[in-house]
Amino acid sequence: MRKLIFILLLFLPLTILSKEQYIYSAVSVGNKESTIAQHKPLLNYVTDKTNKKIIITYYENHKELVEMFIKGDVDIAYLGPIPFLALKRKYSNYEPLVMVREKDGKSSYRCVLFAPIDQMDPLKNIKNIAMTNPLSTCGYTFVHSALKKKGVDLESIPYSYVGNHEEVAKKVIAGLFSIGATKEDIFEKYKNLGLKAIISSDELPAFIIVANKKTMSQNDIDLIRNSLLKIPNNTLSILKIGKNGFDRFDESKYINFEKLLDSNILKRIYE
Fold first, then answer.
1. What pTM value is reported for the model?
2. Which of 9, 84, 90, 196 is exposed most, by the fewest CB atoms within 10 A?
3. pLDDT digits (tens, 9 = 90+) for 51-73
């Protein structure tokens, strides 16, 4: 009888048990310290509302974060659209929690290609290009598309991945690169130091917070999602990441975005 019960248990669906602590990680826009500082108030709020301790860990680049999520070392991840597409391609045990609104209240954002303000014709005779991580949407994907529309082949120009978005802006300001590309809010932060916009992208699907179904119970996933969707206005005002609120996940935005990417870009994402 015991043997029969044991055999039956082997075929029962595996239930993920609720845990008291979860690991959260985010794609880096600034350095390690600023990335943690930006997310900490939000994580403190979620911890308070759910009684689930959320601990932040830091990875240097998008690819490593996606790999650690798949491995099960990360329970909750904050991802841009390109890292999210890479995750979708390689892993099915994820569940979107929310989309992150930008300051205009929309769950979308833009990338900006920029140059030093004193360059008269910045797309002529480009010496080199500064970009953030390969899986950053404002990195190779945006720059390749933006230059292609202007008749410029990115692969004919030296380019370097210099780190986070702020590092891109700083390298161009320092005169080390002819042009660079970042999220619009980072460009706005640094433009008064001598930058000018050349090309802005169309609206891109928002950053997203994703749960790992392999390591989290469905009850905890729902609990955390609801806590994010119901943040009161007086709490939003003290947040950094998430200060404009959150929307429910809209898969159509990401499907339409993926359709806009050419085969070479998709190959780079999915390799």
1. 0.78
2. 9
3. 999 999 999 888 899 999 999 99
Round to whole Å and give the CA distance between 114 and 198: 5
Of 201, 230, 254, the last residue of a domain is 201
pLDDT tens figures, 208-226 = 999 999 999 999 999 999 9
Predicted local distance difference test score (pLDDT) of residue 135: 81
Q: What are phi and psi of 229, to 5 degrees?
A: -75, -15
Last residue of a domain, one of 201, 228, 251: 201
Q: What is the pLDDT of residue 10?
A: 47
- Do 98 and 79 meet the contact criterion of CB atoms below 8 Å apart? no
Provide mean pLDDT across the span 15-19.
Answer: 73
Q: Phi first, then psi: give them for residue 24, nearest 5 degrees.
A: -115, 140
Q: Is residue 140 part of a domain?
A: yes
- HSE (side-chain half, CA atoms, 13 Å) at 94: 28
CATH of the domain at 30: 3.40.190.10
- Residue 221 belongs to what domain range? 20-104+205-270
* Lowest-confidence segment of 1-5, 124-128, 152-156 by average pLDDT: 1-5
